[in-house]
Design a protein that fits this description.
Layout: E1 3-7, E2 16-24, E3 31-42, E4 45-54, E5 69-70, E6 76-84, E7 87-95, H1 99-119, E8 124-135, E9 139-150, E10 153-164, E11 169-170, H2 173-176, H3 183-193, E12 203-208, E13 212-217, E14 221-226, H4 227-230, H5 239-251
Antiparallel strand pairs: 1-2, 2-3, 3-4, 5-6, 6-7, 8-9, 9-10, 10-11, 12-13, 13-14
């Protein structure tokens, strides 16, 4: 290895580690070029992000940003990739938020990714993808789906995070529900119409997609309720304000 540098190569406020290795010809003074590698520390391990061969040593090179999504408040969500023992996972990284909330959010997402990877360390296979169903001004939902195969058994994965962007906290469904209301009665009645049993005992998480509050129940199953139908049962603030603002804009 010829050199090692910590440089912010794409202006995202995070330093990347750049290493270079000099490639020589017949003699040591005959420099053919440089093998340049960009590294990032993700989910507890160093990962190669990009490998280039250059005939000249240029310390700061432009790198294209991965899949940048811009939230309603101007924050960014970029894709991070991690590879461990032939298992490749992607997870979102939030940027341009207040430092404390940004750290809280990214720490939870990276810890979850590590947890999934460690489940199959050495003798398993994991296939997981993520999506961002909603990226509002004050609230964002992230959904992970896929499966884990280990010891000949395959289990589905369906997990969500619902962030208060002001604090970076993952908001539980119970925290959103008004103290007095018939939310669960409505859930039970609506699911019964579809011959399903969805209630407070079977639901383990949720996410918001901008139009529906989607409940995760059983083994990764989904049941959606129209935002118009559930807004009245939610506390003021956070997701309810986003729903009411959207409805108001639609009426205008």
């Amino acid at each position: 290895m010829s050199n090692l540098y910590a440089i912010d190569t794409n202006g995202d406020g995070r330093s990347d580690v750049i290493t270079t290795q000099r490639i020589v010809g017949v003699t040591n003074v005959d420099t053919i070029g440089y093998l340049r590698t960009k590294w990032k520390y993700k989910a507890g391990t160093w990962q190669q992000e990009k490998v280039d061969f250059q005939t000249t040593l240029d310390y700061k090179q432009d790198y294209a940003k991965d899949d940048v999504l811009t939230g309603a408040g101007g924050y960014t969500i970029t894709r991070e990739n991690v590879v461990v023992e032939n298992n490749r996972l992607s997870y979102p990284h939030f940027g341009k938020l207040p430092s404390t909330s940004q750290w809280n959010i990214n720490n939870q997402l990276e810890e979850y990714t590590k947890t999934v990877l460690y489940k199959v360390m050495g003798k398993g296979r994991v296939v997981v993808k993520y999506e961002v169903p909603y990226a509002g001004k004050n609230f964002a939902s992230v959904l992970f789906t896929g499966n884990v195969t280990k010891d000949g058994k395959t289990e589905p994965i369906a997990e969500s995070y619902n962030f208060d962007l002001a604090t970076g906290a993952d908001i539980a469904l119970e925290h959103l529900l008004a103290a007095k209301g018939k939310f669960w009665e409505v859930v039970a009645a609506e699911s019964k119409k579809n011959n399903l049993v969805v209630n407070s005992n079977t639901v383990y998480n949720f996410y918001f997609d901008g139009d529906n509050l989607v409940l995760l129940y059983g083994e990764g199953k989904e049941f959606g309720l129209s935002a118009n139908k559930v807004a009245i049962f939610l506390k003021k603030g956070e997701i309810r304000d986003e729903i009411l603002t959207k409805q108001s804009n639609a009426e205008k």
